[in-house]
Amino acid sequence: MLAIKLDQVSVPDHTNLMDTPAPGPISYDIAEAKARLSELLDAALRGDEVVISRNNEPVVRLTLVSKHRPRPYGIASDWKVDNEALLAPMDEEDLLAAEGAHTDEFGLSLKR
Questions:
Q1: How are beta strands 57-62 and 26-29 bridged, if at all?
Q2: How many helices (H) and strands (E) would you count in the chain?
Q3: Residue 75 in domain
């Protein structure tokens, strides 16, 4: 007969299952998700995929929203523009178009 003292046995604590990342999606029904929303949000912030189901059908997935990163400066630093093209005088027709000669009172282009 094997006798084990209870104070020597390690029993896992199942009161908070959200302490460690889950290997796959975490799935909850709507009532349980409503009761544990704060924990589910924390899990999603850790990078876990949380799925909320209705009648055993997945309906919503909580995932971390990636933050929008601005474009880095100098993305077109290798572009070369000919100074002659920038400083050359405009053609008469291009100058009239820039001044709005070929547009109506609303700024829309007129047919020529």
A1: unpaired
A2: 4, 3
A3: no
What are the tens digits of pLDDT across the range 14-72? 445 445 555 678 889 999 999 999 999 898 888 888 999 999 899 999 887 777 777 77
Tell me how far apart the alpha carbons of residues 49 and 82 are, in angstroms, rounded to a whole number.
52
Strand ranges across the sheet with 26-29 = 26-29, 50-54, 57-62
Nearest to 15 by CA among 1, 33, 36: 36
Can you give the CATH number for the domain in which 55 is found?
A: 3.40.1620.10
Total number of domains constituting the chain: 1
- Nearest 10 degrees: CA dihedral of 12, 16, 21, 27? 110
**Token couple for 67:** 């933050």
